[in-house]
Design goal:
The protein is of the alpha+beta class. The protein contains 8 helices and 24 strands. It has 2 domains: about 280 residues, Rossmann fold (3-Layer(aba) Sandwich); about 120 residues, Immunoglobulin-like, CATH 2.60.40. Strands 1, 2, 3, 4, 5, 8, 9, 12 and 13 form a 9-stranded mixed beta sheet that branches.
Length: about 450
């Protein structure tokens, strides 16, 4: 199979994956399934007048602190997220915003979204709402937590609101330290996981998806401890050398102390398809001319794109389906995981020596279609693509390496592969032998 043919097939997967998800998956949505299209994003914004810990002012001024995604202002010192919304929409996301006090968090309502952004939230949530969020994450949801003092009426409000949800995962958010931080790849130790997809894109090797530096203005750092319930927390960008502001339940500014090895500018919590990221500041995502920094400066926009793509992605999965159909031969197809922007390796073992083969591929899960002679086809016969594969060697083996494109929207796409070996009078329709099937889900590197 040529690289060009494989690229063409993967492009075709990308084109029809959304159609398939809508036409075949959506009608069967159950309460435990997160947004099957993988592109819906929900921003939670504070109630009118609920911001402005430092700014004060009238209700309109306090509301302007809340980084509304529908505001496209580029006025000097703005705090709006309209450009971020447009950036995400141009990248294929559907973006929505809820105003706090107008919506209750329930599992059913959250399952409509692949990513929930806790932006300028600042209220105290009920135990029932916190439990609904935890159930949403357990079901495979993703969340982004961002902090800032002016997202609440007190210095403590925004961090305390986030910490209701984060405590379960061994993570806590500090108050805003009111300091400007530029995190750079070249600074020793700052990028704790430099090849992480948030910092380097899915290929992990830089280039156009590489983040060299990003900025925040008045950052809320995080303490990262052991997770629970199988969740693993890791520091992506370290806070060592910075200062953190300790939480103070009175709502007043806490004491500034040196950050330690367990403190982060950016962290990730993962379990299976579930992902949570904490990011230390809102200013990175402001519209042009935003206060302190904005989405147009440094690599802030690239960071935002990488971050949301990673949160929307799922882990790669692969499983063998059914059994081979041969004349007493242990024919087997194996493959490495289908990871975006990496090479996938297929291996065929136990076939007859020196025979031609073809790869059979179809979008969707494996389904057994019985054939005359007792064989089964595991790719869908009405949506099947046939591609020339190598001939087997003298041992009856071959290895095939194909590059997986760097197309983030392929994440979550499921496809099935099977190999047909041409053998005279073989049990598969009298023309060959069939391998087992491989059902695969495309994912991001982790």
């Amino acid at each position: 199979m040529s690289h060009a043919v494989w690229e063409a097939y993967c492009h075709r997967l990308f084109q029809i994956a959304t159609v398939v998800a809508i036409s075949t998956v959506l009608p069967r949505v159950v309460t435990a399934q997160v947004d099957p299209t993988g592109r819906a994003v929900l921003f939670l914004r504070g109630a009118a007048g609920s911001g402005g810990a430092r700014a004060g002012g009238d209700e309109a001024a306090r509301t302007a602190q809340l980084s509304d995604i529908n505001s496209s202002t580029e006025a000097a010192g703005n705090k709006a997220f309209g450009t971020l919304r447009t950036t995400l929409q141009n990248d294929g996301f559907a973006v929505e915003q809820w105003i706090e006090s107008k919506h209750e968090l329930t599992l059913v309502s959250l399952l409509r979204y692949r990513i929930v952004v806790f932006g300028s939230n600042n209220r105290v949530y009920s135990a029932r709402e916190v439990a609904a969020f935890h159930a949403y994450i357990d079901a495979g949801g993703s969340a982004l937590f961002i902090g800032d003092a002016d997202w609440g009426r007190t210095w403590e409000a925004a961090a305390a609101s986030d910490n209701q949800f984060l405590a379960r995962y061994g993570v806590s958010e500090y108050q805003d330290n009111d300091a400007t931080v530029i995190a750079e790849r070249k600074q020793p130790g700052r990028f704790a996981i430099a090849a992480h997809p948030v910092l380097s894109g899915p290929d992990g090797i830089g280039g156009t998806s590489d983040v060299g530096a990003f900025a925040g203005d008045g950052v809320s750092l995080f303490h990262v401890g052991p997770g629970s319930s199988g969740y693993q927390a890791r520091i992506i960008v370290s806070a060592v050398g910075l200062r953190k502001r300790l939480n103070r339940p009175s709502g007043n500014p806490g004491r500034l102390v040196a950050a330690d090895d367990d403190d982060a500018c950016v962290f990730v919590v993962e379990r299976g398809a579930s992902r949570i990221i904490g990011y230390h500041d809102r200013s990175t995502f402001f519209n042009k001319n935003g206060l302190g920094t904005d989405l147009t400066q440094l690599d802030n926009r690239r960071l935002a794109i990488n971050l949301f793509r990673f949160l929307a992605s799922v882990p790669a999965q692969i499983k063998s389906v059914g059994k081979s159909c041969t004349a007493n031969r242990p024919l087997r197809l194996e493959a490495t995981s289908p990871l975006i922007a990496t090479d996938q390796v297929y291996r065929l073992k136990g076939a007859r020596p020196n025979v031609p083969t073809v790869m059979l591929l179809s979008l969707g899960r494996a389904v057994a279609f019985p054939l005359p002679g007792g064989c089964a086809l595991y790719v869908h016969p009405f949506a099947m693509i046939t591609m020339i594969a190598p001939a087997t060697d003298s041992r009856g083996h071959w290895s095939l390496t194909v590059p997986f494109p760097n197309h983030h929207r392929l994440s979550g796409t499921t496809f099935t592969a099977q190999v047909l070996c041409f053998v005279g009078s073989g049990p598969a329709l009298g023309v060959g032998e069939l391998s087992n099937g491989l059902e695969m889900q495309v994912g991001f590197p982790r």
